Amino acid sequence: MRHAYDTVAEDYARHLPDTRPEAGIDLAMVDAFAEAVRSDAGDARVLDAGCGAGRMSRYLAGRGCPVRGVDLSPGMIAMARRDHPDLSFAVGSLAELPYADGQFAGVMLWYSIIHTPPAGQARIFAEAARVLRPAGHLLVGFQAGQGARDVSAAYSRFGHEVRLWRHLFTPDQVASRLQAAGLGEVCRLVRRPRGNERDDQAVLLARAG
């Protein structure tokens, strides 16, 4: 996965510079997350975990959240630092976040769990819970369904020969994994595909106990 995103990083940043791919209702969930974090914490620091080239980090910063981004791909982090030089980004794994316990009021996993097989999901949510403060909020977005899809073709049209798989999960599966990590579901959004999307899209908001 790291090699794939390092390879496509520049084209990814060029073609996905902002939140135009998101539906308005998707962004409403991000707005609700940002509001919850700001309302419940004097220091509304948020971690954009799996930040890619930083487009959602910018969105969160625009909603009053001091944000840090982390991503496994050095190439994507280089694009994030280039395009958003006023924000803070670091290279790191979602399965071993380079931050101390209880450091953030919010953690966002925006389509960043999708390349991890089911066996690795528990570790991601455990790490997110570890860096959250008590009563902190987590937001996770993902394609809803079952199985896995080979999404390599999405990048071949830009001349990149990479191998990349996307795993699908049901909202109930994700909610169960959140609960196992000590995160209680607050609300969820599930919507039908639009445009070129092939799958339902889901967003869950959860809170640490």
Automatic annotation (TrEMBL):
What CDD domains would the database entry show? AdoMet_MTases
Quote the Pfam families the UniProt record gives: Methyltransf_25
For this protein, the record's InterPro entries field holds:
Methyltransf_25, Methyltransf_Superfamily, SAM-dependent_MTases_sf
Gene3D superfamilies associated with the record: Vaccinia Virus protein VP39 (3.40.50.150)
Q: Does the keyword Methyltransferase apply?
A: yes
UniProtKB keywords: Methyltransferase, Transferase
Q: Where is the Methyltransferase domain?
A: 46-136
Its BP terms in the Gene Ontology are: methylation
Task: List, in alphabetical order, the Gene Ontology terms for molecular function in this entry.
Answer: methyltransferase activity
- Keyword Transferase in the entry? The reply is yes
The protein's name: Methyltransferase domain-containing protein
